[in-house]
Amino acid sequence: MTFAMVKQLTGEQLALDAYMRPFNAMVKEANRVNEDTELIVRSPAYMTNIAALLAKADWAVVHDYLLVRALRSFGSALSSEWRAEFERYAFERSGAKTAPRWKTCLGQTKGMMSWVLARKFVLKAFDAKRKALSESILTEVRKAFREQIKEVKWMDDETRAKALRKEELMGQKIGYPDWLVDAAQAETYFVNFYGEPDVEAVKKSWLAGSVHLDRASTRQSLSELGEPADRAMWGMDPATVNAYYSPPMNEIVFPASILQPPFLYMPDEAAQRMEVVAFTALNFGAYGAVVGHEITHGFDDKGSQYDPSGKIENWWTKASREAFDKATQCVDDQYSAFAIPDGTHVKGKLTLGENIADNGGFRTAYRALKAVLTPEELASKPFPGLNMTASQLFMLSFSQVWCNKSTPETLRSRVESDPHSPGM
Q1: Which residues belong to the active site?
Q2: Helices assigned H by DSSP within 114-268
Q3: Is 69 exposed, middle or buried (0-12, 13-18, 19+ CB in 10 A)?
Q4: Which residues contact 21 (CB under 8 A, 6 or more apart)?
Q5: Count of C-beta atoms within a 10 Å radius of residue 329
Q6: pTM of the full structure
């Protein structure tokens, strides 16, 4: 909807024109937001409701709320008294003890200058052979995914052809972007991300340095508005143990840090066949399932709304979309029946996309494994002294990477707000 339409939703309560003035001051004139600018509003009801809430709110309370939010943004960079108060709040909310100071400092450095650390990690610690191994697994999982699309009984041929086309055009990035290991290119990107080094700010205080980097990050984000997408840019740095699917880019990305145990094991070059079988099963159960998970995101309740070029466009026939909604309702109902120990139920609708991807990733990775191992190898027990078949090792590996331990407070918070179902 246009900016003018959004203002009609909210009335004068949110003062959106005033909000946009500093925003427009930081972008090119041609890219500034005006009355006719098209905006993506994911929840129009939220905009209406927040305006209604503010209309009857005590402005002293609103002021204090915004002040606390601002302070929390830089809480770890404030004095010890402030940090102690935020740590007390965090303990009350999650039950987790405060991390050692060195971990906090390392985490803050990673959070603020992640690409600088990522470059050092890639140059010093990443084995390029892992990229080749991960690519081979990814190829097999994508092949299995395409085969599954061809077998979906409720999908008609018109939608199936478009689904296969979307998967075919889905980009993939593994390890790290090429520019990161080129010193000159890396410096250009770093200045874009973090601004010119402000030695005086850094000398003044950790807070001043943090504010400098925060402003640079905001400028960098706004500079992308209205400009062609930089496809050499990643939405996640290589030093992050994670992966993602980007609907607007229609691409799957697997940073270098996830290409290591327990997600990806490298058999020794002199390894016997049974050892290779064992590690193959472990790799497909962990990394292979992650690959399948991210591919499936392109076709879940949200990803399915984007076409192969990354535009929000309905490419489904009415019959296939209705069948899809019916099938996913089963997933919603199944997960809504699960509950954590205190009796709080998982929110099936909130977690639907991740649950579809989890199930799809598991199923696709196992199908891919059955294509690369023989039935005899799948039934074999490749680790001497371990009474588990290769198929069971796949299941064990999948379970291991997602099993976690949480305090009751954190678990409750996750179930209430996290789009990922808890791993228990």
Answers
A1: 294, 358
A2: 114-125, 128-151, 157-169, 183-194, 199-204, 206-223
A3: exposed
A4: none
A5: 13
A6: 0.90
